[in-house]
């Protein structure tokens, strides 16, 4: 007999018929979410579930009941009256809920720490670096202003909007012209922005000092990485050369009409305003490479009689900006893109080529079969000055390049296809690397990253640092945040990590890891250690380029509650899930060797993982060199150092890990996928008001516009804001 389910009374609300449920899914690269909901947390993946019916509710058979007409009328009237009262009650309840104030949110523990405000001290407070006293040092010594150092009090009390020091050109290329460099390398041929070679690429400007009381970073170190720590950048010196501060009629982007601009005239005296609308970055990069080809390719005309020693050749590097159709390139984004190409490709003598890898989200557009459609799609979605550096791709291409099956999935929390950009963001990068074997390294860069410092200085410093790192203890050091004020010197930090590794029953990672599997590629010969771990005197790996450089720690997802920790495809589910490593945010530098292995693992073995896990795990499995770079990261609160170290480096259990349940701890930082402070501080630096603070009036009546040290920001979801 067919069974029926009797609905509960509360399910009979007729107002439900009037409600409209809409759900629009916007496809984003991992880490992008306009609602600020974590794509890496379980909360972002929860589905609404209806409550189960009451026990036995589905066991009532349908019963025919004989009723008189009068009884039927009475029953109908009763039901109608009941439903009317129910509807009225439901409406009143909705209105009461609408006007009822939500209960106050219980703050996170870090929200109770004192706020840091030294970031906002302006150019009028800039002092030589040797005179700088970090905000935390003063705050931790005493809250009594009378006990603050005399030099500190004097500078802040007498500060005006006028900079006390003059900006100077920031030139990280000087080593390229030194006698020591030219002894082993070919000389750099100057590059220009135009074919006639009349427009020189501009310099950027920095102030030789730091605002007094400027907040110090909690993570990372300028000194350890070799970044200049004694200069700061304001918006005019940093972005003025790229169009900030002069009109669109002159080829700039404007944006500075209402900006506080005291002292900016010193920059305009030395900067030539360039009409950036006429620049073709594609041809400019090609001309620059052709002039400097000898620096990268072996010169066949060199004497073979041994009278001349061959010069050292430089690696070629592709810097890939990941974008998509429909992306809005506003004035702020143009400034950043021009800075990246000018500083990395043109002024370096062709050491980098910058590319836009553009995802065509509409898979029905036949970009692979019609050149004219390809051209129109590109020109409709990319600003003209960047047409020559853009490459289009779409998901149908990826499906052909990496065909199914990607079977035996351990877990797929997002329920999305492995070829989609959410779970397969690494596939187009692997494909791009196969199309461009001329490059030795590939930078995977997101469009919501910003840098107040100089791109060439930053990239050069971190790659040099990673190259000089010994392999011994590198995976372990790279799994933790370096907190200089807590750990001391880098050598002391390394010693602390070594002691922790010695006491860890799992021991260190030393060469390719062994684990049960049913099929793996053979690892490269030179990734096997030449000696045992104990015999090595921190020598193996020194001078070896890193296959993978990340900007967040390479953590073990198995020790966290990160929601995608078992999103692993193609490995036998009859065996334990393979060992993995992960770095949140896919921003990284990858070697050709690593990308080739990722590619072959995908198309030969049908292996893949969630994007943040894939490249670190392939490097782990095959013994490649991987390093997390301890770049400076700031926080908006004055964290106690022991608490900071415990929360970020020593969680007691997986649920406490900051890569999962504890990810809220990153919200007040300048670098993580869900950082809120990152965008707020960047907009304040630009001169906009944020949370009713800052803006033109604040700068004019205070100590002038902000001046920040070189800092990598993520994410910057929007940049424009009110100035008043």
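Q: What amino acid sequence fits the structure above?
A:
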């Amino acid at each position: 007999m067919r069974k029926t389910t009797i609905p509960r009374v509360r399910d009979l609300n007729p107002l439900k018929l009037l409600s409209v449920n809409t759900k629009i899914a916007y496809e984003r690269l991992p880490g992008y979410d306009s609602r600020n909901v974590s794509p890496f947390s379980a909360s972002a993946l929860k589905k609404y579930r209806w409550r189960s019916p009451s026990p036995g509710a589905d066991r009532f058979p349908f019963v025919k009941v004989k009723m008189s007409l009068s009884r039927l009328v009475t029953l109908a009237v009763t039901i109608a009256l009941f439903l009317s009262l129910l509807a009225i009650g439901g409406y009143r309840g909705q209105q009461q809920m609408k006007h009822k104030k939500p209960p106050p949110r219980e703050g996170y523990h870090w929200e109770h720490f004192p706020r840091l405000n030294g970031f906002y001290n302006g150019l009028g407070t800039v002092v030589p670096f040797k005179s700088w006293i970090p905000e935390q040092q003063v705050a931790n010594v005493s809250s009594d202003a009378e006990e603050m150092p005399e030099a500190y009090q004097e500078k802040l009390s007498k500060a005006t909007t006028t900079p006390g020091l003059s900006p100077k050109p920031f030139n990280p290329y000087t080593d390229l012209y030194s006698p020591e460099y030219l002894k082993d390398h070919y000389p750099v041929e100057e590059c220009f922005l135009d074919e006639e070679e009349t427009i020189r690429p501009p310099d950027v400007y920095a102030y030789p000092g730091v605002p007094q009381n400027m907040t110090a970073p909690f993570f990372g170190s300028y000194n350890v990485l070799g970044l200049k720590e004694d200069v700061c950048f304001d918006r005019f010196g940093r972005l003025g050369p790229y169009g900030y501060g002069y009109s669109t009629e002159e080829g700039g982007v404007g944006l500075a009409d209402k900006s506080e601009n005291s002292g900016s005239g010193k920059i305009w005296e030395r900067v030539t305003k360039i009409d950036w609308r006429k620049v073709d970055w594609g041809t400019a990069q090609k001309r620059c490479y052709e002039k400097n080809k000898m620096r990268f390719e072996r010169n066949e005309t060199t004497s073979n009689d041994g009278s001349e020693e061959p010069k050292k050749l430089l690696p070629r590097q592709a810097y890939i900006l990941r974008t998509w159709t429909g992306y809005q390139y506003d004035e702020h984004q143009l400034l950043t893109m021009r800075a990246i190409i000018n500083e990395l490709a043109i002024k370096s003598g062709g050491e980098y080529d910058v590319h836009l890898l553009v995802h065509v989200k509409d898979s029905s557009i036949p970009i692979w079969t019609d050149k004219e459609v390809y051209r129109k799609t590109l020109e409709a979605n990319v600003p003209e000055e960047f047409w020559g550096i853009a490459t289009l791709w779409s998901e149908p291409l990826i499906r052909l390049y990496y065909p199914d099956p990607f079977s035996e999935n351990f877990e797929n929390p997002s329920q999305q296809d492995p070829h989609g950009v959410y779970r397969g963001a690494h596939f187009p990068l692997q494909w791009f690397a196969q199309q461009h074997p001329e490059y030795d390294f590939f930078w995977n860069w997101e469009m919501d990253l910003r840098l107040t410092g100089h791109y060439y200085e930053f990239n050069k410093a971190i790659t040099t640092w990673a190259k000089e790192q010994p392999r011994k203890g590198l995976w372990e050091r790279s799994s933790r945040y370096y907190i200089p004020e807590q750990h001391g010197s880098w050598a002391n930090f390394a010693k602390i990590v070594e002691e922790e590794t010695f006491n860890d029953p799992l021991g260190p990672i030393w060469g390719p890891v062994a684990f049960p599997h049913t099929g793996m590629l053979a690892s490269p010969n030179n990734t096997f250690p030449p000696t045992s771990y104990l015999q090595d005197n921190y020598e193996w790996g020194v001078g070896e380029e890193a296959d993978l450089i990340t900007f967040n720690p390479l953590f073990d997802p198995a020790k966290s509650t990160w929601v995608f920790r078992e999103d692993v495809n193609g490995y036998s589910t009859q065996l334990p899930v393979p060992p993995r490593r992960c770095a949140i945010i896919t921003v990284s530098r990858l070697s050709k060797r690593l990308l080739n292995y990722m590619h072959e693992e995908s198309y030969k073995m049908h292996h893949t993982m969630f994007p943040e896990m894939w490249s670190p795990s392939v490097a782990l499995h095959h013994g490649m060199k991987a390093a997390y770079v301890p770049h400076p990261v700031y926080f908006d609160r004055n964290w106690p150092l022991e608490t900071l170290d415990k929360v970020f480096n020593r969680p007691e259990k997986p649920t406490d890990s900051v890569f999962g349940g504890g990810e809220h701890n990153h919200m007040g930082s300048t670098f993580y996928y869900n950082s809120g402070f990152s965008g707020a501080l960047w907009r304040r630096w630009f001169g906009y008001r944020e949370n009713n603070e800052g803006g033109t009036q604040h700068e004019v009546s205070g100590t002038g516009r902000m001046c920040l040290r070189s800092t990598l920001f993520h994410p910057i979801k929007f940049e424009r804001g009110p100035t008043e």
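Q: And what stands out in the fold?
A: Residues 122-279+669-713 form one domain.
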